[in-house]
Amino acid sequence: MGRRGGQLRRAAGTFPHLALEDVDPSVPAPAVWFGTLGQGLGAKASAAGFDGVLLPPVFTPTATRAIVDRLHAECRALGRDPQTLRICQSVITAPDLDDTETRTLAHARAVTYLDAPGYGEMLVQLNGWDPAPLQALRSHDQFRGMDSVSDLKYHRSELLGPASLVPDEWMNESCAIGSVEQCVATLARFREAGADELVTYGSTPDQNAALAAAWADHSSLTRNG
Questions:
Q1: What pLDDT does 28 receive?
Q2: Which single residue of 67, 130, 161, 190 has CA 20 to 30 Å from 217?
Q3: Does residue 1 carry a pLDDT above 70?
Q4: Domains of the chain, earliest start first
């Protein structure tokens, strides 16, 4: 137990028998990543004890940049080289898909985050969005009397009604949607924001095949240019 910054902190405990199983001692130890929002204590924990972090989707590149800067600052505060902490940003992708499928993958998926108490407010704040659409979304008739979050009650294909209240501008900023070329440009903005790696989210490998090929070509040109 200890006190830092005026707050009382308790150790989680000691676990003498906790270990990774089936590890080949002849190969390097596997990297350990942390799924985090990159805020406050999460950023401190990432810098102190993990090889990399996986950031969730529905962040704008601007929000990603702020999180990257925070993670790097925490690393420097500990005397750690920030480049040794890999940062991966999840991005919802819907390349060259029809409007209904795009809205199912992007807008309806975002509903499951936005309607969650606390999480939705955080996304709106970090992304610098107007909170009014969030309140309208949560007041949708489909959610009236709901005793859980939408992600536990509905498949995203059943959320297209509430999803119509998610501004297109939000999705265009935070998701890679539209033509393959537009998706590549969006992914590039996340890399420019400081993400070391990207992971496509929500859509299938088949749906992303053309985007993956185009991104490989873009990355090759970037490295050689």
A1: 80
A2: 67
A3: no
A4: 32-94+176-225 (3.20.20.60), 107-174 (no CATH)
